[in-house]
Amino acid sequence: MHAPLPATIPLERVGARAARPLRIVLVSQYFPPEIGATQSRMQSFAEYLAARGHRVTVICEFPNHPHGTIPPRYRRRLLEVDRSNPYTVIRTWVMASPEKTQATRLAFYLSFMALATAVAPLAGRADVVLATTPPLFTGFAGLAIARMNAAPFVLDVRDLWPAAATSLGQISPGWPTTAAEILERQLYRSAAAVVAVTRPFCNHIDALRVRPPRTSLVPNATLDVFFEPAEPRRPEGVPDDVFLVTFAGTLGIAQALPATLEAAERLAPSVHFAFVGDGPVKAQLVEDSRRRGLRNVSFHPQVPLEEVTGILAASDALLVSLSAHPTFESFVPSKLIDFMAAGKPVVLAAKGESGRLLETSGAGIVVAPEDPDALAEAIRRLQSDGAAAARMRERGPAFARTRMRAAQAARLEHVLLDTVERRRR
Considering 110, 177, 277, 421, which has the largest number of Cβ atoms within 10 A of its Cβ? Predict the structure, then answer.
């Protein structure tokens, strides 16, 4: 049996139980004990909805992200039903692989879609089915489960797919992209309601749905734990007398991190860059750093939430980075709000929606993406202007308190209740 997952939302933020409790099936390929933004968002939604009195069943994969390896305890079985939390979790086998190619990704996504649909009867009857994408195939699993239950289907969109995957070269141009775009449009139009994490996402989806209701905004938000005082703990091997810039999260193509190594080269030896996390480009970054002889760059394993807060507290600045591809101008990384809540100056290498958000908050500096000179200059400004850095440390938490996870979960609950009510009329 699993130990209960640590709570992400304090019960005092939940309020009274719902007057009309629902039977909710939540389909998410990624879920704790995996670590990541999707996992945290879905766990908080499940927690909140269960605390409000709804019967929640999560259908997810056996843990394997980001390495693509299923732990031994899950092998030689097709599923596991976990009732150690206030909600039920049904975990299924998935065709995971450490090798990330178009073929292995497709097998990974399709195997979860098939197994999630097959095990859905174990969840019992559903009043509403919620699925989160990407990948789109998880959405189609949710749609199939909703039709099996004659229940409305609600879609949560965290990233625009296939646009993001195409821009990163994960989907070939031509017919694969065209086919994916047809699937995207069909999924949006099949949903009774859609929620998305940014306003540009909402606009994109509405243009493809061409049917009411309009997409609801349920943005990424932060957790109480990021506001709580944490014992500062520098990553192993990082000197105490250097200015520490920390990147914590997935080391992937979308984060465009090679430019950060170039900035580190310009800022040595007084600035140290710590990368905390794992991902598909980590080995490449480690090799590039070694080739450049960067002694002011270090790489550290992914750590659970309760440990990362100490690393953030020991940092002088926190880095958020996105690709310069125009697709990513509509994205807002979930870690941006978390880093504001931690009360440290944020350096954001990105354009568009996330840049506007940080500028509004006054909690950091926005620079052009994939521009090592601009990134280095921003960090020098923070080093030399203590008063400006202090103002950013104050403004970050104040802004982040307007983006709490419990409030966004309440928005989602309203969409679910409204969708079910519309179906019953």
Answer: 277
